[in-house]
């Protein structure tokens, strides 16, 4: 592989005008496609295999036009102090608002508070329920605007009005914080390279790669039902890896120049060596992202595949456009150790500092001398950080986790005040009595069973379909939607339904947003172990091919698990326990988002392997070329520590930018990924990895002979390039 990539790098360097033209054309084509494609709506949301989804599907069949999985909005009214919602003026305002809410092609129904007895016992709070024909993720902006305007008209009349439900759900705005992340990345690159031009190359290529990826997603959004949320993960991951991969190759190019090679040869060797590491690092990220499909949640699968496509584009750009741009830059990109004039490159070097070891060399030498102490300190430190993960509680965010500044959260609080905390999470029980001898009696049995369960506040009368074989019952819990008590109630209803089905042949299904959240959390929990086995197993096999070792990939996988557990512990401490909550802008603590563990496993594993591959391939390269194991570790750090440090800081900056989001879910993802990268890069890869390799010595690179013969030789270390170079030197000596 190294030889092929070497030739590709030289070709891209020589034919730089052609290569640059191809990528600019692709960016233009993707941009035109995105501009001409229909505006990306929000993709349909379904959770195959869950009871809640099965109930929604049944309702679509038995209650045509009901739009069981359609969006809902609760417009909550509160009377001014000393007044009641039943006062004539307030009642007239509400009735006028209900009339306004009924307009719109996507509105299925609006329930009048007075006809539906949706007024609190003290008469101060009332609400109107709005049902839509499509889900909250598919609502048109015009429909949402009409909802907001109707609420504002009621406010203008003197009432306190807030809007809850999923009708106002929107893609979180995080553009400003992303710009901050890019700015920090630019500063790190300038410090790393000591040159504005060299620092600009990774940023430019990363932005082009993300531009192509996101534009392609927008262009394909309508035919593939990708939706506007699909590009979020692609942007986050594509930007981070795009900068990192380009950084690896530019850094190696400068190192090759420092060894006296001409620029075309240096570009070829940079792509042949660092480019090989980029290919395999990219493959691990793609495996991790595509592997999200095992969860069988369509939206998550689409996000993973789209992000994987953006990573693939980032790899191709790093292998081709970077050497092309290096060709355009010419002598403006200095060899390693030299700085541009802007950074003092015109001054003479201090000859006494020429042989001074860099920080990476000094640190690696220390670790090689004290491997046991460093290993114990690293493992114990990560273990301590992981302790809170033992108290991990999973759930999905609802309006109760929104900031208090949002209308959804204020509506949630008003409903809790007027009707009780469980009112925000009603359970919809669907009774399929098609095969029961007496459908009405079976449904009555279900209602009586539910009334006898713990934490049930209200059970509404059953509503039958036209055929009289299916009924819906609304159950109001006594506890808030995200509580463990409500989850126990859902399981209790389902257990009771199993007994009723055995007696009457009537099937009982529990659905609604609260039940759906519980089912999604369970589905994600059940998929975590298979996903971990798949992703880590495939990457383990890939790393065996790369490093031609058993113990090095095993150490990489175990170190990754340590960093993920420590990061989960940090997430629990901040978002569940409330440590440093004010500093992170966490207004409401609660369960950790159920998607977080599997999401972190997928994304962080792929990114962690970037550092593993780049850092350890330099060690493997030195070992293959004759250095002793301990010295190979030091050599790997001398060439790679600075670059890996810069790459990790950049990735942390990109992820940390999302902590500023007002959405608790996005905030949690940004914090979790930033902390995970910190633990993995600076504790696992920079401390635990060299300590373990120093302790293992030559055994670290052991591989059974039969397996060595069976594995393909991908030559990530560039041994083929060294052999080729030696042959060329021999031919030159013969000619002279």
Automatic annotation (TrEMBL):
Superkingdom assignment: Bacteria
Keyword set, alphabetical order: Cell membrane, Membrane, Transmembrane, Transmembrane helix
InterPro entries: MMPL_dom (IPR004869), Mycobact_MmpL (IPR050545), SSD (IPR000731)
Membrane protein topology class: Multi-pass membrane protein
Subcellular location: Cell membrane
Segments forming a coiled coil: none
Membrane-spanning ranges: 179-198, 203-221, 233-250, 271-294, 306-329, 372-392, 528-551, 558-580, 592-611, 643-662, 668-696
Pfam families reported in the protein's UniProt record: MMPL
Gene3D superfamilies for the chain: Multidrug efflux transporter AcrB transmembrane domain (1.20.1640.10)
Residue ranges occupied by any SSD domain in the UniProt entry: 179-328
PANTHER family on file: MEMBRANE PROTEIN MJ1562-RELATED (PTHR33406), MEMBRANE PROTEIN SCO6666-RELATED (PTHR33406:SF11)
Family per similarity comment: Belongs to the resistance-nodulation-cell division (RND) (TC 2.A.6) family. MmpL subfamily.
Protein's name according to its UniProt entry: MMPL family transporter
Source organism (scientific name): Streptomyces actuosus
